[in-house]
Amino acid sequence: MWCSRAQSLTEKSRAMKQLPGNIKVLYFASGSLEPYVEIITVKDPKHRLSLCSSLDSEAEEPEYQGDVDSVLPVLSDHSLLLDDHHLQRLAAHMPARTQGYPWQLVYSTAVHGSSLKTLYRNMAGLDSPVLLVIKDMDKKVFGAFSSDPFRVSKYCYGTGETFLFSFNPDFQAYRWSGDNSYFVNGNWQSLQIGGGGGRFALWLDADLYHGASFSCPTFHNAPLSTQEDFIVQDLEVWTVHS
Question: What gap in Å lies between CA 106 and CA 64, rounded to an integer?
Fold first, then answer.
C-alpha cells in the first residue's frame, strides 16, 4: 500500500513542471496532478552578518564583505578616528542586534578631555554595546567592541560578542577564544579588556593617556598597538542609539 502511494507520488512529481527552488511540495490531492505547495522565503546570506560568522583577518573575510554597505553603522556624530574604510571592515564583525541603529558618540578625549572617570560617568545608565576606538602617537588605530558599556565593577563583565580590532593598516579582528571570560574589568585606576597570566589585551590608565596591549588568552590576540606600551593621541567611545 505504501509502495503504491510512493510510486504514485513519484509519477505525479515527474509529470509536473520543474518547480523553483523556493517552492516545497506538501502533498497531492487525490486524483490530481497539481500539488499543494509551500513557498519558502530564503534570506540572502549576504545580509547574515554576525560576530559568529566573522573571521580573524581581512584576507579571510566572508565573500559578502564587499556588499556590507547596506548595514554599515551610521554615525550620528562626527568622528576624528573612523571613516567609511574603518566602518566597512568593522560592520561584518558587529553582532546582528546592532545593525540598523545609528551610533552615537558618548565620549571623546577631544570633546570631554582625558579622564576615565568622565568616561564612566558618560556611560552611566547605558544598556547597550559600545565601540572603543583609539589612535596612538604612532597613528595606529585599534580598539575593542564591548557587549556591555564600561563601568566600575569588582568582577569582569561582558559576553562572547566582545572582540578586539586593529588597523595596521590591514584590518585584524580577534574574537573570544573561549579560554576564559575576562572580557572587561573597570576600576577608578584603569580600564582592562581581556586578560590571563597577568597580561591584558588592552589597558588604559585613569588619565586615558598611557596604555598597553599584550597578547592574552581571552582573545589569543597579537598586541594591538605598534609598541606594547603606547601613548593615546585620541580616543572615542560610541554606543548604539536605539
Answer: 30
- Please state whether the predicted TM-score (pTM) of the whole model is above 0.90: no
Asked if residues 147 and 161 have their Cβ atoms less than 8 Å apart, the reply is yes
Q: What residues contact residue 63 under an 8 Å CB cut-off, 6+ apart?
A: 46
Whole-number pLDDT of residue 224: 97
58, 173 contact by CB (below 8 A): no
Question: DSSP strand E in the chain: where?
Answer: 23-28, 35-39, 74-75, 102-108, 130-136, 141-146, 163-167, 171-174, 184-186, 190-193, 202-205, 210-212, 229-240
Distances (CA, A) of 43 to 25, 49, 64, 169: 20, 12, 14, 33
Q: Please tell me the distance from the alpha carbon of residue 172 to that of residue 167, in angstroms, as a whole number.
A: 6
pLDDT at 124 over 80: yes
- Cis preceding linkage at 169, omega within 30: yes
Q: Which residue has the cell 580600564?
A: 191
